[in-house]
From TrEMBL:
The keyword Cytoplasm appears for this protein: no
Protein name per the record: LuxR C-terminal-related transcriptional regulator
Pfam families xref list: GerE, PAS_9
Record domain HTH luxR-type: where: 125-190
Length: 200
């Protein structure tokens, strides 16, 4: 996907130019299917943009199970505010995993994932990926949204004590004493960047 720059300026077609060459990954989806993405999005995941067109988003997750687990995240907030963002682990074409900041806007708020546009930012430079189990990734992702252990337990349909065990393992693994230290050790994330239900 490339847009002639000179022609776009002469004809005033700046929206096409902005979408194609934005320095952040942009993708338009329909029912979790990638309809079109820009150059930066393709490069981030190791694909040519046309390779991703009409692919189910599951192709970009570490496992199908993780796609199923995370695919409905943000639906409630999109319905209420039409704004959502979180930070999650995604997978490149070569299988390497990396942290990504995802922001979404729906064109169909009553059915938020029917038609939407998303931005993706690669956080590798500030937050390197550390190998984690699927359950550790799930819990870490929910912690990054500001959820309590009880709220995480409800979402994952496990006991509150199990969440606490995993949280303690994560703290030991990263050699820190609390959740704030955990995120700081993963690249400097602090309270101002932890997603909560009141954030955009």
């Amino acid at each position: 996907m490339e847009i002639p720059i000179d022609d776009s300026y002469e004809q005033g077609r700046f929206a096409d130019l902005a979408f194609c060459y934005a320095p952040v990954g942009l993708v338009v989806t329909e029912d979790r299917v990638i309809r079109q993405c820009n150059i930066a999005f393709g490069e981030m995941f190791g694909y040519a943009p046309e390779e991703l067109e009409n692919q189910v988003f599951a192709i970009l997750y570490p496992t199908d199970a993780e796609f199923v687990n995370i695919r409905d995240r943000g639906v409630k907030q999109l319905r209420e505010t039409n704004r959502y963002w979180d930070e999650r682990i995604m997978a490149r074409k070569d299988g390497t995993l990396f942290w990504c900041r995802v922001r979404g806007h729906s064109f169909t708020p009553d059915d938020p994932l029917a038609r939407a546009v998303w931005s993706f930012a690669d956080l590798s430079a500030e937050r390197p990926y550390f190998p984690l189990t699927r359950r550790e990734r799930e819990i870490l992702s929910y912690l990054s949204e500001g959820l309590t252990s009880k709220e995480i337990a409800i979402n994952l349909e496990i006991s509150h004590r199990t969440v606490e065990v995993y949280r303690a393992k994560l703290l030991r693994k990263f050699g820190v004493n609390n959740t704030s230290g955990l995120f700081h050790s993963m690249g400097g994330i602090d309270g101002d960047h932890v997603v909560s239900t009141s954030d955009q």
